[in-house]
Design a protein that fits this description.
heterodimer, A: 147 residues, alpha+beta, six-stranded mixed sheet, globular, B: 199 residues, mainly alpha, 7 helices, 75% helix, 0% strand
Amino acid sequence: MVARTLAALCATGVLALHPLHTTLTELRFNAVDRTVQVSVRAFADDFRAAAGGVSDSAAFAYLRSVLTLSDRDGRVMPLVWCGVRRDGDLLWLCLRALAPRGLAGVQVRARMLFELYRDQINIVQASYDGRRASLLFSRGDSAKALP
Amino acid sequence: MSEVAVFLVLGFRHITDFAAMDHILFLCALAAIYRLQDWRRSLWVITAFTVGHSVTLALAVTGALAPSTRLIEFLIPVTIVATCVENLAVRDRARAPWGGRYRPVFAGVFGLVHGAGFANYLRSLFVAPIAVPLFGFNLGIELGQLVVLALAALALALVDRLIQGLLPRAGSPLRLRVIGVSAVVALVAARWAVERSPW
C-alpha cells in the first residue's frame, strides 16, 4: 500500500506543473449602440482540442454551444461572430450581441472546456453602467445573473 | 460576486486541488518539523512563502519577469528536496543558526520559485488593472495554504500517535516523524526533479 501511494504521488509530478485551467471572458456593454462585446481568452491548445479547430466556423459553433447570454425574461441573446486573434499561446475570440435593455439581470452561462478538465474554471467579467461584476463558473454550475 | 472574491476562490481552489501536489508536499515538508503548539512559527513560514510567490507572480504578470517554464518545473521539486534535507540535517532546532529563524527567509526564497510556476497561466488571466485580481488570488492561495497546513498538522499529530503506539520506548516521536515524512517527501520530489530535468 505504501509503495502504491508513493507511485501515485510520483505520477502526479510527471504531469506538467499543476496547470491552472481557466478562461477569461469579458463582457463590455456599449451604451451608445446597446450592444455587448464578448471577448473570450483561452489557451489555443485547449480550445482547439475542445472545438475541433480554431477556424472561424469551428470556434463560433463551439462557443455558441457553451456560452449563452439570456435576457431578464430568459430569451437567448443571439451571438454574432466577430473574429479570432492569436497572441502567442492564447486565443482572443470575439462575439457580439444586441443588449437593448443593458446587462443588468442578464443570465450568463459559460461552460467552455468543461469537457476537457474537471478543474476547469471560467471567469466572466462584465463592465456596464459604470460598474464591474464578476462571475465564476465551474463544472455543474447553471446560469448566473449579472447584478 | 466581486472581482476580489472571484480571484480569491480561484486561488483557494488552485492550491487545495490534488493536482497541486507539488505545492502541498512542499507545505508538508515545511510543516514536518512543527508540533501543534508551534503554530505561530509555522504560520510565519507559510506566510513568507506566500510573500515570495506573490512577488514573482506580480513580476511575471506585469511582464517584468519571463521565467523559463522548464527550469521552474525542475526547480520546484528541488526546493522540496532542499527543505527535506534541511529537516533531516538540523537535529536540534534550538542549536540551529539564528535559532532556526532563517526558515521564513528560505521559505520566502523558495516561494519566489513556486510563484513563477503558475505565473505563465495567470499572465493570460490578468488584464490591467491587475492589482485587485492579484490580491484576491494571493489571498485565496494563503487561505488555501492555511487549510492545507491545518490538515497537515492533524495528519502529523496522527503520525506521532502511530509512532508512539508502535515504538513506545522511542521517547519523543518528533524526530522520527521528521525523518519519516522528510524521507518520503524527498523521495517523491527527487523523482519529479529527475523527470522534469531540462538537461
